[in-house]
Amino acid sequence: QVQLVQSGAEVKKPGSSVKVSCKASGGTFSSSGISWVRHAPGQGLEWMGRIIPILGIADYAQKFQGRVTMNADKSTSTAYMALSSLRSEDTAVYYCARFEMARIVTWGQGTLVTVSS
Amino acid sequence: NFMLTQPHSVSESPGRTVTISCTRSSGRIASNYVQWYQQRPNSAPTTVIYEDNKRPSGVPDRFSGSIDRSSNSASLTISGLKTEDEADYYCQSFYNSTNWVFGGGTKLTVL
Fold it and tell me: What does the pLDDT average to over A3-12?
């Protein structure tokens, strides 16, 4: 069973950038996709975008266009999500999730990103 | 784009049955698969229903999903409620075949 292991918590200043990693443990991404979802305090789940690692194709939610970049390193089965121009509203737990067709097969454990001056 | 609207909260007693709705604002609910996720406090979400009504292995058959074309909505039904079912539940669907939409989430209280 492939698990997703995410990088550790981050504390960032407003205006800076953050990069979160998501590594497939016990296997590879194969033909799966990776979506990134965040959960801000007191809010619901929010989809940020997705990448198909085998194709290197990414789609981003309109809200994050221009601020988010998703890529993947097939050789290490690691996906990355970078978010720039951080503001306090970006404080959230960020999750990666491996999906096949419509189904999320595995969720990462989450990475807390705190944006504070 | 469209929105998925869920009730903010529902509550029911142990052993009873509860249904959580998810109404699509525009376009047909049957046009794109609906998934349901359970999220307990301070935990990552887990998938309880995918492709409208399919259960991943390990999810008890107390959980079921359906769609209703007449109300343009999807539903998650949990029967034989247990205290461990207390969590937030989110529906999710797709637009433009690639983009995802989440409902606002429903807090289920089992009391």
Answer: 97
